[in-house]
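Intended use. Records like the one below are meant for learning the mapping from a protein sequence to its folded structure. Do not use them to infer anything beyond what is encoded.
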Amino acid sequence: MRAVVQRVNGARVTVDGRTVGEVVGAGLCVLVGVTHEDTAEHAARLARKLWSLRILEGEKSCSDLGAPLLVISQFTLYGDARKGRRPTWNAAAPGPVAEPLVDEVCARLRELGAEVAEGRFGADMKVSLVNDGPFTVLLEV
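Structure written out for the chain above:
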């Protein structure tokens, strides 16, 4: 699994003009990509890492501050544009594999005590956020 993690001061995802997920104030916006070899254990490891990652103000984590996370599926994180001008998506897991694993990340975060907002899998989503810092990191588990 691959995740782009952005420290935010507010983030929202809309579908058809309606807000489907939002965090208000300090938190994380997390774009999650799934590849073919990923498992529920990868999802659990990613959730633990996200919950304890010390990138919020004062080197605090979401677990330290009770900060919310907005988790959004993002198959394009496994796009490959090294050849030609059009990316390929061969490394991205198909929806029936990826969706349950993104759901598993969210479920595991909630088990840890996190407040989790979500995007809508497979939808044409519009994401807006205020990147705080800016501070963005790439995680792979």
